[in-house]
Amino acid sequence: MSLDVSEDLLAKAEAGEVGDADFIDCVKQSLPFAWELIAKVVNDLKNGVVSSSGSTQFADNTTPPPDEQARGQLLRVLASDSMRGALERHYGVKLAFQNCHRIAAFPLAEVDSDTYRKFISPRGQLLNQSPELRDC
User: Fold this and answer.
1) Which of 5, 35, 107, 119 is the most buried if burial means most Cβ atoms within 10 Å?
2) β-strand partners of 105
3) CA 79/CA 133 separation, integer angstroms
4) Residue 66 carries which DSSP code?
């Protein structure tokens, strides 16, 4: 199970649409490692921290999760269209993902940039591979 859904939130969902604030809170409480890592990357972006590739056009994380539970949280939050979309709306960014841990945050204005297209390209994915990441 990806999310720990309270009885109240489940009742809201059964009755109709659930707002982003309630959904985001559920994600934050259920997947704390993923939440904190994405919040850190977004904070790095907003503070102009230089990415691993030397760019200030985006911020990223290249440190693998500390364990399989943390890795699973990150994979679940980024593989879910609803969770990923809610986080992107919440932070006002576009999230990009490579491997099992390389998450990047781009300003929405950069989505059509060469930097973004290079990051999400097949070439970008291949260049981000290494033997230690093959079984991550």
Assistant:
1) 119
2) 59, 95
3) 18
4) S
Q: Give the pair of three-digit tokens for residue 81.
A: 């269209």
As given in the structure block, the two tokens for residue 72 are 């699973």
What whole-number distance in Å separates Cα of residue 130 and Cα of residue 134?
Answer: 7
Q: How many residues does the chain have?
A: 136
Counted domains in the chain: 1
Question: DSSP secondary-structure letter at 54?
Answer: S
Q: Look-up: residue for tokens 């269209």? A: 81
pLDDT digits (tens, 9 = 90+) for 46-95: 999 988 888 889 999 988 899 999 999 999 999 999 999 999 999 999 99
Residue 99 in any domain: the answer is yes
- Residue 87 per-residue DSSP state: H
Residue 12 included in any domain: no
Flag whether 10 is in a domain.
Answer: no
Whole-structure pTM value: 0.87
**CB-facing half-sphere around the CA of 37: CA atoms within 13 A:** 26
Query: Dmax over Cα atoms in the chain, in whole Å?
Result: 49
